[in-house]
Write a structure and sequence with these properties.
single chain, about 290 residues, alpha+beta, two-stranded antiparallel sheet, 12 helices
Length: about 290
């Protein structure tokens, strides 16, 4: 779809996703929209994608009547994507975690089944403070029985966000929009230029990868407990896999090839296997 926006009266599901450089599916990388896309595909639900240019996200979200679910550190509203609208119920859901909760409630038995099964070890914590980009993270969702997944989501987002500098230089935007987008990212982070925000030499990238590898060691261990398959529960996928998978998708599209190959091989290849399994089963980009 085009980014020119008219609120939809569709009776089905629409996923509002961030438009990268065309062709969109090839360069589509943002982790939270990918969590929503994996979730829709997990549930086997028909939907269409509405691509939204970066500079139009606030206007589109406001036109939909979906309030911001995050704030910048200065307290101003941070309008971002994904949003999923459901024409059959009138629902408009504007956070990747809340989208998963909504779809599970509406379609409990659809597709691959329960997104939030019990008995999943999600005991993983990030003790690091927010640095780098200062991306606001979703507030912890305390509703049972999904609270443990919400805590896991917060911690996983924290770890990968503080290493997002590795991924930033590989993000691809439409050439006519690139300068404005990079300037806005720099402004949000309090930097004079995009280069000041993301610039890393080879030694800096190696140091940051080493930091990420150490901080995901305990995360990898959770995926090594079940040897029957690549998911936290072995052969049965759940939303915990999708939480990590959104970030793996981001890295697969933005890291230099040799770095992505390295990360896929960490800890006996658990992250490479997880990414490949999610991509094969739930990686379709529906237009």
């Amino acid at each position: 779809m085009e980014s020119d926006f008219t609120p939809t009266n569709d009776t089905g599901l629409v996923l509002y996703d961030i438009a990268p450089a065309p062709p969109y599916p090839k360069h589509n990388a943002a982790p939270n929209p990918w969590k929503a896309r994996y979730t829709l595909n997990f549930k086997g639900l028909p939907y269409t994608t509405h691509w939204v240019q970066m500079g139009e996200i606030s206007a589109v979200r406001q036109a939909l009547g979906v309030p911001a679910c995050r704030k910048f550190f200065d307290g101003t509203e941070y309008y971002t994507l994904p949003v999923v609208t459901d024409g059959s119920t009138g629902a408009k859901v504007g956070d990747s975690f809340d989208i998963a909760v909504y779809l599970q409630k509406q379609h409990p038995e659809a597709g691959a089944g329960n997104l939030f099964p019990g008995g999943v070890d999600l005991n993983y914590e990030c003790s690091a403070g927010m640095v780098g980009f200062g991306v606001p993270l979703s507030e912890e969702n305390s509703r049972e029985p999904t609270a443990v997944y919400a805590r896991f989501n917060t911690n996983v987002d924290m770890v990968f966000s503080i290493h997002a500098q590795l991924m930033a230089e590989g993000m691809k935007w439409a050439p006519e929009r690139e300068a404005a987008i990079k300037a806005e990212f720099a402004r949000r982070a309090g930097k004079a230029t995009w280069e000041e925000l993301v610039g890393l030499d080879a030694a800096g990238r190696e140091k940051l990868r080493a930091s990420l590898k150490e901080m995901v060691k305990d995360l990898a261990a959770l995926f090594q407990k079940e040897t029957s398959g690549p998911f936290l529960l072995g052969t049965q996928p759940c939303y915990g896999d999708i939480i990590v998978g959104g970030w793996l998708r981001m890295m697969s599209r933005t890291l230099p090839g040799e770095e992505w190959e390295e990360i896929q091989g960490w800890y006996d290849g658990v992250f490479g296997k997880l990414h490949a399994a999610l991509d094969e089963r739930f990686g379709e980009v529906k237009e």
